[in-house]
Specification:
Length: 414
């Protein structure tokens, strides 16, 4: 599909921007992979008629765990990324490659598959050193630059903090495209955490914490004190992955930290609703971003992003169009990346949504608020239609149609 593409008959146009989440326009022109015009209807080689359905920026999953290619070893599942894209997600942010078999084993005592592997003769300490975690982060970054199942954008450049890093490691990581340092498992000393934090800031790496029920360093018992020392840019799964931090640490992050507050599908949804309400009271909804924390021990849920939006709409007064911003524009901005918005000049990563066929509702926003399922009928990434029609079991009410206009004949030709 080359040349300009015009989306027309858009019923509801969502922008991904909290300042004006719904745009007063019925058309969007895409060319060269980029949104060129909004609200105009010029001639275009390809016209996509939405028949009144909703057009929105593709969702960003701010907390995904990519492995190699589209295989998830913990679930022994192929195709999780492709199914995630078909469910309306166009961008994945890696929260770290934490579960590569044999490459990063958190603990021989944890009651999970990694402990099982350690029990069979593996040495978990061996995979837990600065050299190994750095090599893995660089390898994943390289691999996901070219591996794009269904065209997905996957930012895989996340490295775990480990004991033993020196400043040159950070220089090397930054030069190799690593964009985020994540405190995942406790490192030994809080002084090292503070040093890593300053190197990350110096070299332009974002800092994310595994925000849960354990301290980030071994020499500090208080979860809150370790969070204070690390001063994260992003408090990863502040509602737990799966168990949240104590409420006083969560409230400290909201009231005194400056971090983006990430809420994930697999966490504690009551705590997520609490964070959302507090952020709304503080007029700080721009700090909230949404993710899945999948695939992982909890399973593979390709529709997790929409489901999280829906559940949070039931548990709070925040309208669906604002929750969509937390899964699109907010995330792009927090990660300092382009996209997540329906705006001129932004990448054309777009999804056409409509209520499931049998729903009593007739509009995507009403459908999600009501509690029915909505489905994408068309998904575009970088101006390329990667899915049309619905390969999932159920269909949206209004399926977009694609019309190709014959190219204009050159003057003088017959
Ligand atoms: Zn995670």
């Amino acid at each position: 599909m080359n040349g300009p593409i015009l989306f027309r008959n858009i019923g509801t146009l969502l922008s991904g921007d909290l300042a004006h989440p719904m745009l007063d326009a019925t058309s969007v022109l895409v060319d060269g992979g980029v949104i060129r015009e909004i609200g105009t209807e010029p001639d275009a080689e390809t016209v996509i008629d939405l028949h009144g359905a909703t057009l929105a920026p593709g969702f960003w999953d701010s907390h995904f765990h990519p492995y190699f290619g589209d295989y998830s070893p913990r679930q022994r599942v192929n195709g999780a990324v492709e199914r995630t894209v078909v469910s309306g997600v166009t961008t994945l942010i890696s929260a770290g490659a934490g579960h590569q078999p044999g490459m990063y084993l958190p603990s021989p005592t944890l009651p999970n598959v990694q402990a099982g592997s350690a029990g069979h003769g593996g040495d978990p300490r061996r995979a837990r050193d600065a050299r190994g975690t750095k090599a893995l982060a660089i390898t994943m970054t390289e691999a996901w630059r070219t591996e794009r199942p269904s065209g997905v954008k996957c930012y895989a450049g996340t490295v775990f903090a480990e004991d033993g890093f020196v400043r040159d490691d950070f220089v090397d990581l930054a030069a190799n495209g690593i964009r985020m340092l994540k405190f995942q498992r406790p490192i030994s000393r809080i002084a090292d955490a503070e040093t890593y934090r300053s190197w990350a800031a110096e070299l332009g790496l974002l800092v994310m914490t595994h925000t849960g029920n354990r301290s980030m360093t071994k020499d500090v018992a208080s979860i809150r004190d370790s969070l204070r020392a690390i001063d994260p840019d992003i408090a990863g799964h502040v509602n737990g992955g799966p168990t949240p931090a104590p409420r006083e640490a969560v409230d400290w992050l909201i009231d005194h930290g400056r971090a983006a507050l990430e809420l994930v599908f697999i966490g504690n949804l009551r705590v997520a609703a609490h964070v959302l309400r507090r952020a709304a009271e503080r007029d700080e909804l721009h700090r909230v971003i949404l993710g899945s924390d999948l695939p992982g021990g909890t399973g593979v849920v390709p529709g997790a992003m929409l489901r999280t939006i829906q559940l949070l709409s039931h548990l709070s007064d925040v309208p669906v169009e604002l929750l969509v911003c937390m899964a699109t524009g907010n995330t792009a901005r927090v990660h300092r990346l382009p996209g997540g918005l329906v705006a001129v000049g932004e990448p054309a990563d777009l999804v056409a949504w409509d209520p499931v066929e049998a729903s009593e509702t007739d509009d995507f926003l009403d459908c999600v608020a009501y509690g029915d399922r909505a489905y994408p009928g068309l998904i575009m990434i970088d101006g390329v239609v990667v899915h049309h029609g619905n390969p999932l079991l159920l269909s949206p009410k209004r399926m977009p149609t694609i019309h190709r206009n014959a190219p204009a004949l050159a003057a003088g030709s017959v």
